[in-house]
Amino acid sequence: MRFLLIEDNQALANAVIERLSLDSHIVDHAANLTTAWDYTATAEYDLILLDIMLPDGDGRSFLEQHRSAKSRTPVIVLTARSEVSDRVGILDLGADDYMVKPIDFSELEARCRAVLRRQTGAAQNTIHFGEIEFDSLAATLKVNGTEVKLRTKELRLFEVFINAPNQIFPKSQLLDRLFSYDVEASENAIEVYVGRLRKHLIGSNVSITTVRGLGYKLECQ
To answer: pTM of the full predicted structure?
Structure first.
């Protein structure tokens, strides 16, 4: 999945990016609100990690405007403030969760998973769809009970599809979800990964179909 980290502490940002990248997530880093707004204007994110005290403003103003724009992208606030009133204020502004610094990275990963599950309406990490089973925590896909080995990009692409079955995804949107700004990639890469996923799904009642002129969608026959 693709995350946006808005954090001015470079050392902390590097540590968060390194930890989340171990799970093959794409993480774009904005050190200030100006850059953050530029990123959200040009990319779609699965989750935003937001610091409060930033060089060019208060992260709470970003959160307030983010919600006023009717964006459904979940936000986890990272704050050094531990007072109950501060946490209540953050949640009332529309944050999905918060963490008090210093951050425990295992807890951060768990909170990210929990927020993403709530976003998709799932109560647990395992998703069943037709004759397949996908476990986002274990990063495993089972087709008719047989585990299928997915490479990193295949895994993250399938994660996009399985979290929104029957939704049509244009190639440009899938490209945006799979690659960060510092990676040059073309829509041909999406065609390659979709082709690989289709082979893995052979023999099940689940397939990735092409909607001519629009994109791809995951559906169950």
So the answer is: 0.74
